Amino acid sequence: MTEKRGVIHGRFQCLHNKHMEYLLLAKSRCQTLIIGISNPDVSYIRPSENDRDRSKKENNPFTYFERYEMIRDAMLEYGVPREEFEIVPFPINKPEYISQYAPTDAMYYMSICDAWGQEKYDTLTGLGLRVEVLWKRKPEEKGTTGTEVRKLIMEGKPWDHLVPKSVYKYITKNRLDERIIRLSNG
C-alpha cells in the first residue's frame, strides 16, 4: 500500500549515498515525502545518552538552509519530482514540537541501527505516530556515515564517491569543506 504522505528525518550532516538509499526507499512507499531536518538550529541540539557525539559543534557543520539545498538538489538529481517532496525542520530533540512541522496523520519512516535509533523510535511511537522501520541493522552494518565523510574531508582524502554529485558540487563550490576542516581544528 502506498501512503499519501510519509515523513522521514535525519541530521544529514552531510547528505551521503546511504541517506539517499533511505530517502528513496521511503519515497517509494508514499506519494509525498516530507523530509525532516533534525537539529535545524543550535537551540535544538541536545546531547543524548545514546549518542553523545551528535551534539558536538564539529559534527554539525552545516546550517539548516545548506542541508535544505543539498537535499533538494540531490532529490532532483535522483529524479524525484519537486512536487513530490517537502523539506521541513524536524525537532526530534524537542518532540513536543514535531506536530508543528510535520503531519501527525502521515506514516513516519525510519531505520534503527543503534540505541539512538531506538530512542527516536520510542519517541515517535510515544507521540502516537504511525512508524514503519525500513530496516534494523547493527551499527557495523550501517554503511557510510556523515562522520566518515567529514573525517575524509578533514584528512584531505577522496570523499566524492560517498555523496551524490550535487552534494559534492555544493560543498566544494561553497567552500563548506574548508569549514569542516576549520571546525575540526578547534
Outline:
With 186 residues, this protein is α/β, with parallel strands linked by helices.
Describe what you observe in this structure.
The chain is α/β, with parallel strands linked by helices. It has a single domain, classed as 3-Layer(aba) Sandwich (Rossmann fold), CATH 3.40.50. It has helices at residues 17-27, 64-77, 115-126, 146-154, 165-173, 176-184; strands spanning 3-10, 30-37, 85-89, 107-112, 130-136. Strands 3-2-1-4-5 form a five-stranded parallel β-sheet, sandwiched between helices. Helix 1 links the parallel strand 1 (3-10) and strand 2 (30-37). Helix 2 runs antiparallel to helix 5. The longest helix is centred in the middle third of the chain and has 14 residues, at 64-77. The model has no long low-confidence stretch (mean pLDDT 91).
